[in-house]
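Let's practice the habit of predicting before peeking. Look at the sequence and jot down your guess about where helices and strands might fall. Then scroll down.
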Amino acid sequence: MSADRLEIAVQKLKDTGIRMTPQRYAILSFLMETLSHPTADEIYKVLESQFPNMSVATVYNNLKVFKDAGLVRELTYGDSSSRFDGNTSDHYHCICSSCGRIVDFDYEPLVELEEEAERSTGFAISSHRLEFYGTCELCKTEYKQ
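Done guessing? Here is the structure:
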């Protein structure tokens, strides 16, 4: 992650009147640096030693602020906890059916598929989500042993 991307995000929050607290900065920075698509609880566990007075509610509240500002994506998968992605560019995900790990899969957005969906259904398509499910490298290795 470039420091520029983080600073642009910080400036966007400031421009909309959102005060940048140390906890907010740490949560945003962590989300923009990690590739792990963490849950709110995972973010809390990583940062709690730096901010002993921070609560899980603080993490959830800040995630909502970031989501509303378009700085993070919330990934929901049925009944499991939401995961958060600091990469808001159009990209896809591979999800491990065994451990739940999520990995980015960068591929050109399938714009022509959206256009075909519009033509065939009459919908005004605003976005799409494509996910691949399988077994990650770690789980494949464990399974072989």
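How did you do? The first helix runs from residue 3 to 15.
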